[in-house]
Design a protein that fits this description.
heterodimer, A: alpha+beta, 4 helices, B: seven-stranded mixed beta sheet
Chain lengths: 176, 167
């Protein structure tokens, strides 16, 4: 039988452990997100990473509200992005004291092949950098994204580079 | 409760040990692929499989099974890849309930110099790993590395003009 002090110590250990497990699980959500994007934008499984009321914001690709709108966006994007490779670097993750919500930031580097802007039927090799901010909530045992916001630093054809061509398309807002 | 805490801690510790294995593997690759060092990261019956994304045609790939074959694979890499930096990114590691086996996925981003006919060439190498791990006398080792390459593109041309230079 544990005395009271020992019971408190086990409870404290369990909550510290839970926090470490949640950090792992949240990093895993971003890793899975990249893998699904880079597997031809698997829209159904990507949508499952989001809550029903999720918001996805991106100055290049637009803003989408709700899991269904996000699914529809992803199912259409592979027509113009025919190959992609997303590198996600976790930066900061902060979990609320009740363990039910979290915010995190990532640096992202993506390489992609996209339909050319100027040459019909052609393709551009594109390199893009962004910082990402995500709000996540725990639904049952699973962390899901409630709000994803990307700030794009540059999206450039690699033969132009980011000095000559910071953005290859129009953008709504960018980091200044 | 207490048993549960021990098991959960053991999983987190195992994940850290596997990340460390991958880091030491990367550093050994980048220190020149010494084949004696490389084989020490693998179980005796391990296999190393290299293929390419399904849309890439005519990629021969490689498959090395067992310590001797893996030794020769890296002895060959040592000759061809004269400089590389293996960035190992976004691990997603799952520890088996037996605490003796595990699986993991990673991204790799690897700028490198490959020695070809006509001299050394700067290459953008990228891909994803599906690994299997097994505890071997108390130490986590690779029982399988399966790398699927996404690009092997000359720096100057990029992956649209030449996605796979070395196929």
């Amino acid at each position: 039988v544990l005395d009271q002090e020992n019971q408190e110590s086990v409870a404290s250990l369990a909550s510290r452990l839970q926090r470490l497990e949640d950090l792992e699980a949240i990093k895993d959500v971003a890793a899975q997100y990249a893998l699904l994007c880079d597997n031809g934008y698997d829209a159904d499984r990507l949508a499952d990473l989001f809550t029903d009321d999720a918001v996805w914001e991106n100055p290049v690709f637009g803003n989408y509200e709700g899991k269904e709108a996000i699914r529809a966006f992803f199912s259409g994007i592979s027509a113009s992005i025919v190959w992609a490779y997303h590198i996600m670097l976790p930066m900061t993750i902060s979990i609320a004291s009740d363990g039910r919500s979290a915010t995190g930031t990532w640096y992202a580097l993506s390489l992609s092949t996209q339909t050319a802007r100027t040459e019909p039927g052609g393709f551009d090799a594109v390199i893009a950098t962004a910082d990402l901010e995500k709000q996540l909530v725990k639904e049952g045992g699973d962390w899901r994204i409630r709000h994803a916001k990307a700030s794009m630093h540059q999206v450039s054809n690699i033969d132009e580079g980011w000095v000559a061509q910071r953005f290859r398309t129009d953008v709504n807002e960018a980091i200044e | 409760m207490s048993d549960d805490v021990h098991a959960r801690l053991a999983k987190l510790e195992a994940i850290e040990e596997i990340r460390d294995l991958k880091a030491r593997y990367a550093q050994a690759c980048d220190a020149g692929y010494d084949p004696d060092v490389m084989v020490s990261f693998f179980t005796d019956d391990a296999c190393f499989v290299q293929d390419a994304a399904p849309e890439v045609e005519d990629f021969g790939g490689a498959r090395a099974v067992g310590g001797e074959a893996i030794y020769h694979f890296f002895a060959d890499a040592r000759e061809k890849i004269v400089w590389a930096l293996h960035y190992m990114i976004a691990p997603s590691i799952e520890i088996g309930d037996d605490f003796e086996t595990a699986t993991g996925t990673w991204y790799i981003w690897m700028p490198c110099t490959i020695e070809v006919e006509g001299g050394p060439e700067a290459i953008w190498m990228s891909g994803t790993y599906r690994d299997r791990y097994r505890k071997d006398r108390g130490t986590w080792k690779f029982s399988e590395i399966h790398i699927t390459l996404q690009t092997s593109s000359p720096f100057a041309q990029g992956w649209v003009k030449e996605r796979f230079k070395y196929a």
